[in-house]
UniProtKB/TrEMBL annotation:
Keyword Methyltransferase: no
Protein name (database record): Transcription antitermination regulator
Organism (species): Streptomyces fumanus
Coiled-coil portions: none
Residue intervals of the ANTAR domain: 179-240
Source lineage: Bacteria, Bacillati, Actinomycetota, Actinomycetes, Kitasatosporales
Length: 254
């Protein structure tokens, strides 16, 4: 599947310069209602915006090479970004089901962008070559000491990406990151409203323990939720339970 086969792929009017294109893409990203929606929109927009891109995916990687696909344009991307090596690798070096690292992602712990010119030439590109993906451009989306989120564009021809594509990709991922933060906060605020009694108890505990006001306590709770990748409600429940305070009736029944 290539970009032209996406019936719902975003279309940008001819003649738009890069700034206008990114602004239009940012509007689409910020119009999504949930983080998952933002991720799905991002991979489609990546194909529409990034020069040379035919497919795209977003995955999260943890130290030790554990990884999980979050969004993808098609199944070939999902296959490229899963834990197992696909069957039929041309050089026969590995059997199906053997775990193989992605050829670019390890680099993104230390640099913001990594590029693969030709998977048939690069020894690390065997998995991609077996899927017909000759080129790849990976960009860091989010990172901390334990977890890395990356956006990767792929193409079926070699040397599909250059420095210009990398520059466009970095500008685009900056917009994706902002939109993802925004949709995450919106989702958390909605969840907070639904469970405001429990959140209120946890906020009160933090106010007393950290000697801060309500706004600061809630901000601290939200940041901890994002950092630990835990729902705000679940984090609040932990805090309340740790201090022996009975939670509001019905919260655990959701």
């Amino acid at each position: 599947m290539t970009a032209s086969e996406f019936s719902d792929l975003p279309r940008f009017p001819a003649g738009l310069d890069l700034a206008e294109t990114l602004t239009a893409a940012a509007r689409e990203l910020h119009a999504t209602a949930t983080p998952n929606g933002t991720l799905r929109a991002a991979v489609k927009l990546a194909v529409a915006i990034m020069p040379g891109a035919e497919h795209a995916g977003i995955s999260v990687i943890e130290r030790g090479h554990r990884r999980r696909s979050l969004a993808w344009t098609d199944e070939v991307v999902r296959s490229a970004e899963t834990e197992s090596e696909p069957p039929g690798r041309p050089d026969g070096a590995s059997a199906p089901g053997v775990r193989a690292p992605h050829p670019l992602w390890e680099q993104l712990w230390t640099v913001p962008v990594a590029m693969l010119e030709d998977s048939r030439v690069d020894e690390a590109g065997g998995v991609l070559a077996g899927l017909g993906l000759r080129s790849a451009l990976s960009l860091r989306l989010r990172a901390d000491r334990r977890r890395l989120t990356v956006l990767t564009a792929y193409a079926g021809r070699p040397r599909a990406f250059d420095e210009h594509a990398a520059r466009v990709g970095r500008l685009f991922t900056a917009h994706v990151g902002l939109a993802l933060d925004s949709s995450t906060v919106r989702e958390q605020l909605t969840e907070a409203m639904r469970t405001r009694d429990l959140i209120g108890q946890a906020t009160g505990i933090l106010m007393e323990r950290m000697d801060i006001d309500a706004g600061g306590a809630f901000e601290s709770l939200v940041k901890a939720s994002q950092r630990e990748n835990v729902k705000l409600r679940d984090l609040a429940r932990r805090i309340v339970d740790a201090h022996g305070v009975p939670g509001p009736r019905g919260v655990n029944e959701r």
